[in-house]
Amino acid sequence: MFDNRGVVYVGAGKVDIQKIGYPKMHDPRGKKIEHAVILKVISTNICGSDQHMVRGRTTAQVGLVLGHEITGEVIEKGRDVQNLEIGDLVSVPFNVACGRCRSCKEQNTGVCLTVNPARAGGAYGYVDMGDWVGGQSEFVMVPYADFNLLKLPERDRAMEKILDLTCLSDILPTGYHGAVTAGVKPGSTVYVAGAGPVGLAAAASARLLGAAVVIVGDINPARIAHAKAQGFEVVDLSKETPLHEQIADILKEPEVDCAIDAVGFEARGHGHTGVQQEAPAIVLNSLMQVTRVSGQIGIPGLYVTEDPGAVDLAAKNGSLSIRFGLGWAKSHSFHTGQAPVMKYNRQLMQAIMWGRLDIAKIVGVEVISLDDAPRGYSEFDLGVPKKFVIDPHKSFS
């Protein structure tokens, strides 16, 4: 038995490193399960979705152990686990999924019907997602291990690529899902709203899928500069020039074939609308404006059913002032929701292992210790162009 420490939400704007219980093979209701494994966490990442909770923008409870982006080594397994061995290095999809329900059998693992009594879909260390303990820790339990876990081949080679492979648990499949559901194809012109890690993962995915031009927009100068340095076209949404005019300067036309919302509900207004004011529907409305008729819009950016810190009463309940009539008139297709990570992670692992996708460089991975996680949260909240990866056991840093 080992001691265990983790990153714990202790109040709006605050996280702390605390001693937490060593994981047991029990579900959140206390029932013993034999389909689980215990992982020694090799890497675990700070995600923008975590930041929503830490900012106090959700109903997350104080004491929640955070972390849904996990890569680990199997150190214990239940008697029902058949396809994994002690010592295997695995990537953990952030979706907790049973593999048995209708949703899972249809590869919609983001909305598993059995792992969360409150609603469809489960996740580690996340509000309203089934009370599964998070993995920003030294050790973590993963249920339905044979179904959920992606074994990484050739351990030594995988460790050489660990900074890229750590992105398989969430942001890379999420960005890829955004690109796929936006209909990106060879020769497409693509606009990605948001130059954070998911936005850059979506842009990289669009490029992998053969897009002719990928444009990334943001209001943060450092993130815009980083996106440009990765070879993407960029637009600066803090400028007075409207988005469609900036796109026209690049493409010689004001619309794109495909658009991806990698911002979500904490969006802020564009320069010509009042740059510092929060405007939770502005990204969706702007994407409808700049997407061609019969185009598709992928929405991997997070939207919530309850937002205590919203700017108005409607938004507090997840109701936004969306110009749905514009989208209807232009015959747009919208795709929302959590990415079903297992639908994509094996293929994306292959792209990483064979040098097709340098995702760590693209999203700006920076490795930190578990004790340094509060600094990582603080800097990420300020908008630095980085993806903070925690190395709890100093396995590779």
From TrEMBL:
Residues 35-153 form the Alcohol dehydrogenase-like N-terminal domain. Residues 197-264 form the Alcohol dehydrogenase-like C-terminal domain. Its cofactor is Zn(2+). This is Formaldehyde dehydrogenase, glutathione-independent. Pfam families: ADH_N, ADH_zinc_N. The gene is fdhA. Its EC number is 1.2.1.46. It comes from the Bacteria. CDD domains: PFDH_like. PANTHER family: GLUTATHIONE-INDEPENDENT FORMALDEHYDE DEHYDROGENASE, ZINC-TYPE ALCOHOL DEHYDROGENASE-LIKE. It comes from Acinetobacter albensis. Belongs to the zinc-containing alcohol dehydrogenase family. Keywords: Metal-binding, NAD, Oxidoreductase, Zinc. PROSITE patterns: ADH_ZINC. GO terms for molecular function: formaldehyde dehydrogenase (NAD+) activity.
